[in-house]
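User: Can you predict the 3D structure for this chain?
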Amino acid sequence: MASRNMTRAAFFVLTALADQPRHGYGILREVEELSDGEVRLRVGTLYGVLDRLTADGLIVLDREEVRQGRLRRYYRLTEDGVAALDAEAERMAAGAGAAKRRIAQGRRAGAPARPGGPAGPVDPVDPAAGSSTGLEPPTAPGLAGGFA
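Assistant: Here is the predicted structure, written as structure tokens:
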């Protein structure tokens, strides 16, 4: 999976398996918990992700157990899976760091960007008529009786 982007589902499945082998239902619960409820995989989606991760050599079948008459398959990470998860976590952390730095730079430079960019609002009919600061009072009535 190192050669293509990792899906959010794959990332959380690998993360769920990072500390111990788990069976399908355990993975579903762990993914939901790890993502604070943002990622809720359906069973069919989970097994599709597990199949792809297995084909990519990132996870393997650890063991099978019969519990209450049902077969449970436990999956675990491979060394390649650990490396792929680590690389993805680093990539995400670097991206988040870049975003945080850019946000901080924007805050130090002044107020957040306004619609129309730093020059203020732009008149869609006459862009040259846009205000330079965005603080000038409106000067002409708009179509709905307000000011343009």
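The chain has a mean pLDDT of 82. The CA atoms of residues 90 and 143 lie 52 Å apart.
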